């Protein structure tokens, strides 16, 4: 099989759809809830089971690729061995349930997020929201919602909603974050927080939101969303711990901005710059010297 962006998107779509029915059934009664980092970071057996099932589908179709999943927490090959990715490797970023707090609380805003990356770029991805039977997909032909093309809506911040997973309890400089949040409140039509980073990105790609931003995120949170917004004609900027900015490899930055209009991107970057630099990045992909 030739691993073109379209082929990779097909594989991501198959994996996401494969776990949808079981997740919908579990959503009725999630059962026991455990916690990882703290009580802000819940996890269930359904996260782990879904990620395992996604791995099986992906490795069956792309056995030489690597997967970095939220529950595994490291890049692994089909044999389960931890591997440092090479430049030409296809690395999947997998979040089996993006929005687990919502999933365990009866809120419908959670999804499956799967991205394929190569050479520091997201080349294909899928965001699937089983509760609404909505599947977003990106590849080298564009961005789609349930098969129909989507594009960002290029309105200035004053005429746009912003989706923000910000401020975060992970930030040490809460005073600075409050100043940044005020900038967002004053500069946009209004701010929304759905509880799913991937669905924030999807909202930007389809024109519901004029932008989204966050701090203290992980590659699996933002990978598929980055590909979707870029394919829909939007702007994505990654922000490192020292607040330097990058576009290539933005999924490996702990802070991010996605926007339809350049003014929205600048507003979100200004909000991030209000927060004192902090070590938030985890080097899952071996990019640090």
UniProtKB/TrEMBL annotation:
SUPFAM superfamilies reported in the protein's UniProt record: Carbohydrate phosphatase
GO terms for MF: inositol monophosphate 1-phosphatase activity; metal ion binding
Keywords: Hydrolase, Magnesium, Metal-binding
Species in which this protein is naturally found: Trueperella pecoris
Known cofactor(s): Mg(2+)
Lineage top rank: taxon: Bacteria
Keyword Magnesium: yes
An example Gene Ontology biological process: inositol metabolic process
Entry-linked PANTHER family: INOSITOL MONOPHOSPHATASE, INOSITOL-1-MONOPHOSPHATASE-RELATED
Protein name: Inositol monophosphatase
InterPro entries the record matches: Inositol_monoP_metal-BS, Inositol_monophosphatase-like
Lineage: Bacteria, Bacillati, Actinomycetota, Actinomycetes, Actinomycetales
Binding site for Mg(2+): 70, 95, 97-98, 221
Signal peptide: none
């Amino acid at each position: 099989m030739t691993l073109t962006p379209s082929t990779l998107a097909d594989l991501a779509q198959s994996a996401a759809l494969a776990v949808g029915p079981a997740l919908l059934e579990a959503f009725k009664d999630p059962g026991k809830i455990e916690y990882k980092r703290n009580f802000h970071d819940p996890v269930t057996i359904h996260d782990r089971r879904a990620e395992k099932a996604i791995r099986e589908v992906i490795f069956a179709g792309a056995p030489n690729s690597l997967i970095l999943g939220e529950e595994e927490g490291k890049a692994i090959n089909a044999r389960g061995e931890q591997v440092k990715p090479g430049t030409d490797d296809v690395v999947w970023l997998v979040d089996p349930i993006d929005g687990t707090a919502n999933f365990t609380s009866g809120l419908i805003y959670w999804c499956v997020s799967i991205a394929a990356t190569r050479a520091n770029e997201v080349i294909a991805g899928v965001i699937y929201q089983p509760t609404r039977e909505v599947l977003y997909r990106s590849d080298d032909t564009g961005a789609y919602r349930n098969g129909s093309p989507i594009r960002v809506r290029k309105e200035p911040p004053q005429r746009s909603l912003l989706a923000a997973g910000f401020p975060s309890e992970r930030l040490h400089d809460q005073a600075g974050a409050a100043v940044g949040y005020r900038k967002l409140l004053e500069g946009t039509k209004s701010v929304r927080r759905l509880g799913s980073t991937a669905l924030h990105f999807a909202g930007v790609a389809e024109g519901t939101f004029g932008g989204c931003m966050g701090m203290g995120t992980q590659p699996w949170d933002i990978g598929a969303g980055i590909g979707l917004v870029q394919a829909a004609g939007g702007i994505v900027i990654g922000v490192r711990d020292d607040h330097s900015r990058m576009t290539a490899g933005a999924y490996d930055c702990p802070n991010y901005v996605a926007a339809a209009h350049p003014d929205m991107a600048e507003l979100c970057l200004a909000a991030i710059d209000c927060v004192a630099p902090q070590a938030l990045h985890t080097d899952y992909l071996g990019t640090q010297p």
